[in-house]
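This section describes the prediction task in plain terms. A model, or a person checking by hand, is given the sequence of a single protein chain and must write out its three-dimensional structure as a string of tokens. No templates, partner chains or ligands are provided. The sample shown here is typical of the held-out split.
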Amino acid sequence: MTRGRYSVRFRTPGPNPVLPRYDDTGLGAVLPGAARALGTAIDAPAVTLPCARSVCVVVIDGLGRLLLEEAAAQAPFLASLLAGGRELRELTAGCPSTTATSMGSFGTGLPPGWHGLLGYEVMDPDRGVLLNELKWDPGTDPLAWQPHPTVFQVLVADGVTVTRVGNPEFDDSGLTLAALRGGDFVGAKRLHSRVDIAVAALAPPGRSLVYLYWGDLDGAGHAHGWRSQHWTRELRHVDREISRLARRLPTGTVLVVTADHGMVDIPHADRVDLAEHPELAAGVRILGGEARFAQAYCEPGQARAVATRLADALGDRAWVRTRDEAIDAGWFGPVDNRVRPRLGDVLVAGIGSFALVDSRSATPHVLRLIGQHGSLTADEQLVPLLVHTC
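The expected answer:
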């Protein structure tokens, strides 16, 4: 196949992807915006926020903007911040639209191609194995994997009190050290407790920032689908607690609520399993990434043949790109040479109801998931930017 035919074949197999914006309309601009609101200069794209004595930034894992819009009746407080006015109400998450990558951009203000957290499971080229960037691995040093300073560290160096509130097990985890280091960490299991901790941390005088994370909405969507009663029930719970947080925050505080990605529901019948299609698995050494943004690490010299077979077989169900094509298209922002080998040789981003898995290597937990994310669709890529001034 000639280079010209190859390039045309990969251009637009379906609707155009929502390309991430690594500027002041991207998720990575939230913390730099908070820093500037607190009077700390930072050299990174930043959302515009009111000047404040303190800032509370809440990340609701999995709460895509389009999901919130559709479920607005179940979240009256959050929906009230989404509606009305001309201010920016959405951001792009980044590529892939998944927690590890989004937390890398959120914590550092950098695009994925620079901070290097590139998916759920990506190749550690020094070790020749897949690294799960959520669970991590003691064989991979998180500070070497992501060496750039975080916004939290910049704030602390400028005299701002920083408190991070999340799952107790996240303290000093690999992902936390790589993307979210800096300041003090407080662990709590219940959202109610995390809200109380945030309020207490922002009460003393002086400049302060609290980052509060909640992941149960994402968990409900993965297990049951985001249109399930489980997801709706959790959204109601989140809305009540964030409304309570807003009412209790001290005067002079700016509350910012956002998310790391959205979600789509994928019935198991709509998955393509490489284990059941040896003709598509040919040349693929191992499948990494995630089901909605699969990263195929190929045998030497096989990337082009693998990409061609997948593109022909999947048609308008996925955007299929080689690593170089995706980089050239700006999917990851500028890509550092140290980061490039972590990306798959061939990338498969789902369109519509589609996921790509390999049951020979995927865990049973991953194969059971209904709610999925990672791709470049609006449902997965767009996240809310909700701002409330106390």
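For orientation: Residues 1-13 have pLDDT under 50 and may be disordered.
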